[in-house]
Design goal:
about 20% strand; alpha/beta; about 425 residues; 15 strands; binds iron/sulfur cluster
């Protein structure tokens, strides 16, 4: 069963963009994938997937084996007996958690991560997490979220994880000073750069969510202004707003322009003058502009096709089009949050073809007909398309790699230039 429909997106008449809406077969990883970067970010958290051998295999092969450190993710396997309702899964889960927390006193936050099999047998992980939280508090908090692959895409795992943490954030006092919360996992190196820039702009206090340590929870309340660092956090944003926080509307900090507009949106809330803003950002901005320009020769005029995968597609496409003169053939995204992406859509080239949702066969047909120079897609499509002679970029790599901020703008350009250069060398 499938369908495709045409609609439009954009905040004003000048930015109305055609969208193909697709519903059909999907080719994406599930939300468990988020564990790969989240376990590196929250350094004292543990992710216990309650799932099948398939789930265990996915996590293990995607994240690799941690040789020198104790692992911070694992899978409690649901087997045939559990699926047939012959075993008490709750008892078994309690036993595994007991064993884990006894052996690993360094764990401060334990996530029980639901999967397709745990949802099939209707194992109530929210009850399990509150039962276990009572037992192990105050040393360990136990939360739960779903990483199941049904009707989701892989970055929603982070959204579900962060949304599950919001109720635990302490309430900020009503008379608290205005504070900034940066929401979405960023590499530590990127966070440190933003901390220095916010300090130079006299913006603060600044907190990052998720934190590096489980106990470092930012207070939230009506004086909290938050800005999204990632475009796939709809549920987290909603949960923060229910706690009184207000979103700062901005494009995402990808590329020189995106980073400048993102910082400027915050600076405007704090009443930072243009002079101070320019003085604080000029050096990094100019250095980044020069560094990005080195890739324009390789990317200018190249035709790029985005399959829907990470939800980063629209900000990435905006960066490629505006800073590297790339021609966008089609920009697919699994979900289009019109509010969170409003500033991005305004910056998109007029008339660019967007698609929302997935019907992989239709998109493959359009992609083959367009013969783009570069296809940005999931791992499952990359190899077959390479075999057909196309040049591809794995979209998941763009989620794992530090790409936000001024100092990473050229690295981001290089991620797109590299496969084209490799292809040219193969052909030469
Ligand atoms: S959660 Fe579902 S989609 Fe993801 S690995 Fe497990 S069974 Fe597969």
């Amino acid at each position: 069963m499938s369908s495709a429909a045409l609609a439009t997106a954009g905040g004003s008449d000048t930015t109305v963009i055609p969208i193909i809406r697709e519903r059909g077969q999907r080719e994406v990883f599930c939300g468990l994938t988020g564990i790969i970067w989240l376990h590196r970010k929250i350094q004292d958290a543990f992710f216990l997937v309650v799932g099948s051998r398939t789930c265990a295999h996915l996590i293990q092969s995607a994240a690799g084996v941690m040789i020198f450190a104790e692992p911070r993710f694992a899978t409690a396997i649901i087997d045939e007996r559990d699926l047939a309702g012959l075993a008490d899964c709750n008892e078994e889960l309690d036993r595994i958690v007991n064993q884990l927390l006894t052996r690993r006193p360094d764990i401060r936050l334990l996530f029980l991560v639901g999967s397709c099999p745990s949802e099939v047998i209707k194992l109530d992980l929210s009850r399990a997490s509150s039962r276990l939280s009572k037992k192990f508090s105050p040393n360990v908090r136990v939360l739960n979220y779903s990483g199941s692959g049904i009707e989701t895409t892989f970055t929603q795992g982070e959204d579900a994880c962060l949304a599950s943490m919001v109720p635990d954030l302490p309430a900020a006092p009503a008379d608290a000073e205005t504070s900034l919360m940066v929401v979405g996992s960023l590499a530590d190196v990127v966070e440190d750069q933003f901390i220095r820039l916010f300090a130079a702009l006299n913006i603060g206090p600044v907190r990052f969510f998720p934190p590096r340590h489980a106990a470092d929870l930012a207070p939230v309340g009506k004086n909290t202004r938050y800005i999204l660092a990632q475009p796939f956090l709809a549920d987290t944003a909603r949960a923060l707003e229910e706690r009184g926080a207000t979103r700062i509307d901005a494009p995402f900090p990808l590329g020189v322009e995106g980073t400048t507009l993102w910082l400027k949106a915050v600076a405007d809330v704090w009443g930072v003058s243009s002079g101070t803003f320019d003085a604080a950002t000029a050096t990094a901005r100019e250095r980044a502009t020069r560094a990005v320009a080195r890739y324009r020769e390789e990317l200018s005029g190249k035709r790029v096709f985005f399959f829907p995968d990470s939800q980063l597609e629209i900000p990435l496409a905006r960066f490629l089009a505006r800073e590297l003169d790339v021609e966008l053939v089609e920009v697919g995204t699994p979900f289009l949050h019109k509010q969170h992406l409003a500033r991005e859509l305004e910056l998109m080239p007029k008339g660019v073809q967007l698609s929302e949702g997935q019907h992989v066969e239709n998109q493959l047909d359009r992609c083959r007909a367009a013969k783009p120079d570069l296809v940005v897609c999931g791992l499952g499509l990359a190899n077959p398309l390479e075999a057909e002679g196309m040049t591809t970029k794995w979209s998941i790599e763009l989620v794992f790699t530090p790409i936000q901020g001024y100092d990473q703008a050229a690295d981001l350009a290089e991620l797109f230039a590299r496969p084209l250069v490799r292809r040219m060398r193969l052909v030469a």
